């Protein structure tokens, strides 16, 4: 009788010890998880709501009571850039009675007229003159105006860009006489941060009101940065239409006093000439015994800049055509930030017919862009009907099979 009793006592102690150990492990994991820093560098929030990483684990995110809201309001200085989640309403928005920054109207209440009235900080005399005195002929040539704000939070070490709205955009759809605009923003010169807004359907005056918060950018480096806004119109069936661009060098911009409201005229994007597309070195070899075509993409040089940063992230797409129908496609790896790329990548294509008479091969040099569709830098076509060096190169590989022949080719307009 004593043995079962002893076994039961030891079993009970073992069970209690196991439960205690499991609870301790869970607590440790929870505490370590709460202190873990989120893995992202910026937070993109719609409708002007900022969320900082330190506050993501807070239990009180929205809907604070009126007493705590009043205390926070009285304790906050006028020029403070601290944005606290407890001050939001049930929808996650700030109350309309929030303190003003730099004695300027709230961003939500601003109109294009209010933007134009701030001469010193946001609008140069030339741009102000262009806004207030537009003739009927000038309005036809205008691509619209972009309204946005800049802010730096010293406590969070965060650079905040709010894309407010665009007005007076041209209609890119001739049938509906409207556009589906969105904005792609890049921080130059390194192009590490590429973001874009959502697409707003069928409007020429889109109100985006989207905030992008970038962490880890020291205030001392703000003067060396440049903001590049690309305004585009979404097209479901083809490449998106480029409406225009806005370039904002931040040299001389003072953000220590609070939020800076700005507006700039949208200008036409610089169009590159086809003579300056760069060159591509290609090596071809036709194996008549196996009926295969070996293509080696070797190098590219003198590639033009795809944006205002002066650098591209090029890669090459290789398309094989038989009787004007694409039957195979390949692509190289992306080479970062260089106008002179070295690829050295080999591709082998099976030819579906005897000989190369109905075969052609297309090379597309593109700029890799994480934020939107990749842009074509230049194009090259090799085949029996191709002109210039493309036709000469093709003729040589047909006359000398099993021989690897390399040539430089000028890229034409994409």
Description:
With 414 residues, this protein is of the alpha+beta class. Among the domains are: 144-273, Immunoglobulin-like (Sandwich); 278-411, C2 domain (Immunoglobulin-like), CATH 2.60.40. The protein is built from six helices and 17 strands. It has helices at 2-34, 66-75, 112-117, 125-132, 136-141, 389-399, and strands spanning 42-46, 145-153, 158-167, 181-188, 194-196, 207-215, 226-233, 241-249, 260-265, 279-287, 292-301, 314-322, 325-331, 341-350, 359-367, 375-383, 405-410. The strands form four sheets. The protein has a five-stranded antiparallel beta sheet. Strands 5-4-7-8 form a four-stranded antiparallel beta sheet, with no helix packed on it. Strands 14-11-10-17 form a four-stranded antiparallel beta sheet, covered by helices on one side. The termini are far apart. The model is unreliable at 35-41, 47-140 and 271-275 (pLDDT under 50). Keywords: Calcium, Cytoplasmic vesicle, Membrane, Metal-binding, Phosphoprotein, Repeat, Transmembrane, Transmembrane helix. One of its GO terms (molecular function) is calcium ion binding. Residues 94-105 have a biased composition (Polar residues). InterPro entries: C2_dom, C2_domain_sf, Synaptotagmin. Residues 142-263, 276-409 form the C2 domain.
């Amino acid at each position: 009788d004593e043995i079962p009793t002893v076994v039961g006592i030891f079993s009970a102690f073992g069970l209690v010890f196991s439960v205690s150990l499991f609870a301790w492990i869970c607590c440790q994991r929870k505490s370590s998880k709460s202190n873990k820093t989120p893995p992202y560098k910026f937070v993109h929030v719609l409708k002007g709501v900022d969320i900082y990483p330190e506050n993501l684990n807070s239990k009180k995110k929205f809907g604070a009571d009126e007493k705590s809201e009043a205390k926070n309001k009285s304790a906050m200085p006028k020029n403070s850039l601290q944005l606290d989640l407890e001050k939001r309403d049930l929808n996650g928005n700030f109350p309309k009675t929030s303190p003003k920054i730099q004695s300027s109207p709230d961003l939500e209440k601003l109109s294009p007229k209010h933007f134009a009235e701030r001469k010193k900080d946001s609008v140069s005399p030339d741009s102000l003159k262009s806004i207030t005195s537009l003739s009927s002929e000038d309005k036809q040539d205008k691509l619209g105006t972009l309204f946005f704000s800049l802010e730096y939070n010293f406590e969070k070490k965060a650079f905040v860009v709010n894309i407010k709205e665009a007005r007076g955009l041209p209609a890119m759809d001739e049938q509906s006489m409207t556009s589906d605009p969105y904005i792609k923003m890049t921080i130059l010169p390194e192009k590490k941060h590429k973001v874009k807004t959502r697409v707003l359907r069928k409007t020429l005056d889109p109100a985006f009101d989207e905030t992008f918060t970038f962490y880890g950018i020291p205030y001392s480096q703000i003067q060396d940065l440049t903001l590049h806004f690309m305004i585009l119109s979404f097209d479901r069936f083809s490449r998106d239409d480029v409406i225009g661009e806005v370039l904002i060098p931040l040299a001389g911009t003072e953000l220590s006093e609070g939020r800076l409201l700005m507006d700039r005229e949208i200008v036409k994007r610089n169009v590159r000439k086809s003579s300056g597309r760069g060159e591509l070195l290609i090596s071809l070899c036709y194996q008549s015994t196996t009926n295969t075509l070996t293509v080696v993409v070797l190098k590219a040089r003198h590639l033009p800049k795809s944006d205002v940063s002066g650098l591209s992230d090029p890669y090459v797409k290789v398309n094989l055509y038989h009787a004007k129908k694409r039957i195979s496609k390949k692509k190289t790896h992306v080479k970062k930030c260089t106008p002179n790329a070295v690829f050295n990548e080999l591709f082998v294509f099976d030819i579906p017919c005897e000989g190369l008479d109905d075969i052609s091969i297309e090379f597309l040099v593109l700029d890799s862009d994480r934020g939107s569709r990749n842009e074509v830098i230049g194009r090259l076509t090799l085949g029996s009907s191709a002109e210039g060096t493309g036709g000469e190169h093709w003729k040589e590989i047909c006359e000398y099979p099993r021989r690897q022949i390399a040539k430089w080719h000028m890229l034409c307009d994409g």
